[in-house]
Write a structure and sequence with these properties.
Layout lengths: L14 H10 L1 E4 L3 E7 L6 E5 L7 H18 L7 E7 L8 H16 L1
Parallel strand pairs: 3-4
Antiparallel strand pairs: 1-2, 2-4
Length: 114
């Protein structure tokens, strides 16, 4: 059975990590998300989530972050190699249904895998 917990070790937490990732990482995007990814120096894939106030109020931003975390938690075993990934939500994400957001996340992670 796969361990599907989401620990601190699986997150990007420091501003310097986000900044260096944005400068050197490869960018992937679709209509809902922009993802910046690069090879990690750690032995695991880590994720950071950025949702600005332009997306919506705090309730909407937290909902988007929960959906991204949940998708990553359930699907991180599919990602080959060790990567640092920052998922940035676009404005359009706020108004869409959970299934559409999940499909967009599936698409963006599939692009990263290639």
């Amino acid at each position: 059975m796969l361990k599907e917990t989401f620990l601190k070790e699986n997150r990007l937490r420091k501003r310097s990590e986000f900044v260096s990732l944005s400068k050197t990482g490869n960018k992937y995007h679709n209509s809902h998300f922009l993802a910046v990814a690069e090879k990690s120096r750690f032995e695991r894939t880590r994720i950071g989530i950025t949702v600005s106030k332009k997306v919506g109020c705090a309730v909407v931003r937290n909902k988007v972050k929960r959906l991204v975390r949940e998708h990553f938690r359930k699907n991180r075993h599919k990602i080959k190699g060790n990567l640092d990934i920052n998922i940035i939500a676009k404005k359009r994400t706020a108004g869409d249904d959970n299934r559409i957001i999940d499909k967009a996340l599936h698409d963006i992670f599939h692009r990263i895998e290639r």
